[in-house]
Amino acid sequence: MELQTKIPLKSSDNPIDYHSKLVLLGSCFVENMGKKLDYFKFQQMQNPFGILFHPLAIENLVQRAIQEESYQKGDIFEQDGIWRCFEAHSYLRSKDSGELLQLLNQRLTETKIGLEASSHIIITLGTAWVYEHRDSNKIVANCHKVPQKQFTKKLLSVTEIESSLNNLVGMIRKMNSLAQIIFTISPVRHVKDGFMENQRSKAHLFAALHQIIKGHSVSYFPSYEIMMDELRDYRFYGKDMVHPNELAVDYIWQKFKSVWIAKDAYPIMDEVEAVQKGLMHRPFNPDSEAHQKFKTSLRTKITYLQERHSFMKFD
């Protein structure tokens, strides 16, 4: 008896292994998959400018990075003694304008280097709703709790999204023709926009992305569909009834792993996980002989991994 409608998945012919270099950009679902990849010590760069919810924000970041359009004083603003940037997440801030500009431009350089070296680029689209700053007439990535009267809210059309994604793919391909681009649509529902409005938003993303998949050699991973069809139960959501909970994230990760992680990477993942669990172990008696032997064994495992994969770092 089948109690789920299963989303058909096909294994990639260009899977991720421990030689791969990943760049993850987009909405908060990037953070979920990024944490898993980080836990298993894959080589990755994750949202260097923080969470980016809509396609225009991702396109803008990639364009700035590739074209080396450095941030200037006019690109940042001061609010309550803190300098911020409408193109970056709120955690990128400083009390000093020069310090913020240095940080933003350093992240731009890192983004360009990451994109140039990447073997896989994972892009998660969250919403088609955007906010336009009235004074500058620019679409922002983050409103930073600036009063809403300073913005105009609008829904990107399918044509606008398709154009943005075309530009995004084109820029990446021109710089790094070998990178595998993987798109997903976030399963997180933006219900603060309204329930009908969220559906319209996701529909626009799907319609535009369908055209991109048809027109370019890019891939798609159905995280949204898995959440909506295979996990259609509130026991898979967090307390807000919107975000996938840990169980749901683990489930979607296993699906992603089955199609996008190379099978010969699994034994190494098992070794890494054994070390991670060891590092989380809290002994009853830290000075005991048994615990000292355990620590020695753990250090040996870490050394063995790092001898083969020098990029791996463990806390």
Write the layout of secondary structure elements.
Layout: E1 21-26, H1 29-39, E2 43-46, H2 55-67, E3 77-79, E4 82-84, H3 97-117, E5 120-125, E6 129-133, E7 138-140, E8 151-155, H4 158-175, E9 180-185, H5 195-215, E10 219-220, H6 223-230, H7 246-260, H8 266-280, H9 289-308
Parallel strand pairs: 1-2, 1-5, 5-9, 9-10
Antiparallel strand pairs: 3-4, 6-7, 6-8
GO molecular function: hydrolase activity
Enzyme class: hydrolase
EC number: 3.1.-.-
Provide a concise account of the structure shown:
The protein has 315 residues and is α/β, with parallel strands linked by helices. It is built from nine helices and ten strands.
Description of the structure:
With about 325 residues, this protein is an alpha/beta fold. Helices cover about 45% and strands about 15% of the residues. It has two domains: about 20-260, 3-Layer(aba) Sandwich (Rossmann fold); about 265-315. It contains nine helices and ten strands. The strands form three sheets. A five-stranded parallel beta sheet has the order 2-1-5-9-10, sandwiched between helices. GO terms for molecular function: hydrolase activity. Keywords: Hydrolase. Its EC number is 3.1.-.-.
